[in-house]
């Protein structure tokens, strides 16, 4: 069992002998969890549906992105957890996802040498509606693991778009085309570009194009989960 945050003893005192699974929503005895953080966690049954990618592997990415890193495949419990984090403000889900990410990043020491972590930005309207940017919260977790600063100023969204998840794959590229602008100069810096989920790659590709226009030298994509299946050895 992976235990995070406060100790088992303190958790037991505060929350009793049970916790709630953030994937299936069931309240279960704490010993039935594979990951637990206070009053919530991932039960052993849901944990079995998590499909972890191989340590030291990467995915091909679209556009000027060198490669994509992602610890999870987007299905099963991973889909439930990320959707609740993204659309229902379930921040404990984000904490658990960030724990998985930090453990995953131990296999990629080369990322410590990158210059900035840039999350995919939300439109002002969507940010006001939701109150937070889930990609930024993931980027903060990555920053804590790598000691690389998060930059939320350089890349901005200049056009509202329809939610990508509501569109068929063929319409997603057009939906985000020209939606992002990069400001200033990156002058040969190496960037980790972060999104919560990588599906068709249209959003990340358009963000990367904007960063290349202000002289980013290299862009590596990072998502908490991906729908891409074909992994390849990571070339360093």
Summarize the structure.
With 236 residues, this protein is an alpha/beta fold.
Mean pLDDT: 85
Number of helices: 8
Structural class determined from secondary elements: alpha/beta
User: Strand arrangement, largest sheet?
Assistant: 1-4-5-2-3
Number of domains: 2
| Pattern of helices and strands | EHEEEEHEEEHHEHHEHEEHEE
Secondary structure tally: strands: 14
Percent in strands: 15-25%
Radius of gyration: 18 Å
Taken from the alpha-carbon principal axes, the silhouette is globular
- Summarize the main sheet: 5 strands, mixed
**Level-2 CATH architecture of the largest domain:** 3-Layer(aba) Sandwich
Distance between the termini: 33 Å
In CATH, what is the class of the largest domain? Alpha Beta
Helix content: 25-40%
CATH fold-level label of the largest domain: Rossmann fold
Are there runs of 5+ residues with pLDDT below 50, and where? 1-15
Report on the structure:
The chain folds into two domains: 1-48, no CATH class; 50-233, Rossmann fold (3-Layer(aba) Sandwich). It is 33% helix and 24% strand. It has helices at residues 8-15, 44-47, 76-87, 91-105, 124-130, 134-146, 169-176, 202-213, and strands at residues 2-4, 18-21, 27-29, 33-37, 40-43, 57-59, 68-69, 72-73, 116-119, 155-157, 180-182, 190-198, 218-226, 231-233. Strands 1-4-5-2-3 form a five-stranded mixed β-sheet. Helix 4 runs parallel beside helix 6 (134-146). The protein is globular and about 55 Å long.
């Amino acid at each position: 069992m992976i235990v995070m945050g406060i100790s088992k003893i303190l958790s037991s005192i505060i929350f009793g002998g049970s916790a709630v699974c953030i994937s299936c929503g069931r309240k279960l005895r704490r010993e039935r969890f594979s990951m637990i953080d206070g009053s919530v966690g991932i039960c052993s049954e849901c944990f079995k549906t998590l499909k972890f990618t191989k340590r030291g592997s990467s995915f091909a990415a679209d556009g000027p992105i060198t490669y994509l890193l992602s610890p999870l495949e987007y299905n099963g419990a991973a889909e439930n957890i990320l959707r609740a984090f993204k659309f229902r403000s379930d921040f404990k889900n984000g904490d658990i996802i960030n724990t998985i990410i930090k453990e995953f990043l131990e296999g990629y020491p080369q990322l410590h040498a990158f210059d900035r972590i840039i999350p995919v930005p939300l439109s002002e309207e969507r940010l006001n509606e939701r109150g937070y940017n889930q990609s930024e919260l993931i980027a903060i977790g990555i920053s804590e693991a790598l000691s690389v600063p998060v930059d939320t100023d350089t890349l901005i969204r200049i056009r509202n778009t329809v939610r990508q998840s509501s569109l068929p794959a063929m319409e997603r590229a057009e939906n985000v085309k020209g939606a992002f602008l990069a400001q200033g100069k990156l002058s040969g810096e190496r960037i980790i570009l972060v999104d919560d989920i990588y599906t068709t790659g249209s959003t990340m590709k358009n963000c990367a194009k904007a960063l290349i226009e202000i002289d980013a030298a290299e862009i590596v994509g990072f998502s908490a989960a991906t729908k891409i299946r074909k992994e390849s050895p990571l070339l360093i």
